[in-house]
Amino acid sequence: MELLLKDVQERLKMADEEFLSYDADIKHITQILKDEEIEFQPDFKLVFYAHMVSLMKRLKEDIPLNCGEDCPEEEVEIRAIKVAEKLIEPLAKKYVRDLNRMEIILAGIQLQLAIEMQKQE
After folding, report:
1. Is pTM beyond 0.85 here?
2. Residue 22: CB partners within 8 Å, gap ≥ 6?
3. What is the pLDDT of residues 67-113, one digit of tens each?
4. Which of 30, 58, 68, 112 could form a disulfide with 63 if both were Cys (CB 3.0 to 4.6 A apart)?
5. Three-state SS string across 46-70, please?
6. Angle made by CA atoms 32, 51, 98, in degrees to the nearest 5
7. Which residues are CB-neighbours of 49 under 8 A, at least 6 positions away?
């Protein structure tokens, strides 16, 4: 996991101090994934954690997500949405930010992919 997080940090071009400021949030994400028994394949895990750290940065710096109004929530399984809410809503509260529902949907899509890949193994 340490190597994966170092790769995430390098890909996001974050200094050590900035990346370490998200350590508790990363542990929160990792624990919920463990509790929910969701495991990503290595390449998808890297993408997911990069997305989550980017989300943390957007919340911390109050940078809105800019991806339009098309919100395909009905296409994402309810379990993936619920896990995404467990992951992201506490972060929005921590950083005292309103949460764009699309943040939940985007994470839900990635979670759904991981769940589907687990079923195929």
Report:
1. yes
2. 53, 56, 57
3. 666 667 788 999 999 999 999 999 999 999 988 888 999 999 999 99
4. 58
5. HHHHHHHHHHHHHHHHCCCCCCCCC
6. 80
7. 4, 5, 8, 26, 29
